[in-house]
Input
Amino acid sequence: MRRLTITLAATFLFMSMYANAQPILPTGELTGNAWVHTKESLDAAVQQSGVCLPPAATGGTVFCGKFKEIPKLNGKPVPVIVFLHGSSGLGLKAIGEWQQWLAGLGYASIAPDSFALADHVTYKSPIDKDSYEKILALRASEIAPTLLALKSQRWVDAKNLILAGTSEGAVPVARYTGAEFNARILYAWSCESNYFVQQPLNAFEPGKPVLNVISVSDPFFSKSNSWLGNPQAQGHCGAALKGNARASVLLIPDAPHTLLNLPAARNATAGFLSSLTTP
Output
């Protein structure tokens, strides 16, 4: 009996140590009930887009405001960046600052407002993959109406369109299958299998320029995340872009998830854009 007691005690101790070694997953949250855009919400997403236009496009000074507020312009067509925001929406101050900076370089930008959809679903990670995929499909649906709206704008150089996004918004950028864009920029996304997607489903076109900028220790998509769900993850898009001589990956040490305006990110973005177009 004593030997049995000791054996059971040792087994219990081992199981306790094993359990303590396992990462404790945080509890995710889902709020909101709207998972799919309506025609009205897609129209509103475009009309409420954050837009910044450079002096060359306005014929005067930089304009930053909503798409529906664009004044009469006397400028010329300029390269345009279509930008998909992350899960925080356009309320993230860094996006407006980034768009203003782009205008200073001579590039127009438009960021559709996904939260034009009433009761838009929101979340605190981690949640289930099916829910993430529904949200990513919702975000992907914002690209086509934005492109359609740009066709009627005289400030748009339709031959120089770039698709960009950050975090949640970067996944539809990586997956986009259309040929309207000359290049893609992905901030804070790794293009890999992990907790956030069923499959990466990257759709990069061979030989088309891509820039990927992400933190070495991104809190969501690097191995620093204990619930990443992929022990082989590299934490960047390098594997997905293998063989593309016009693709670049920048890893920024100790950077936060939102890194649009870090000097290294801006320098990489400016260099990448200048290799594509001359505003």
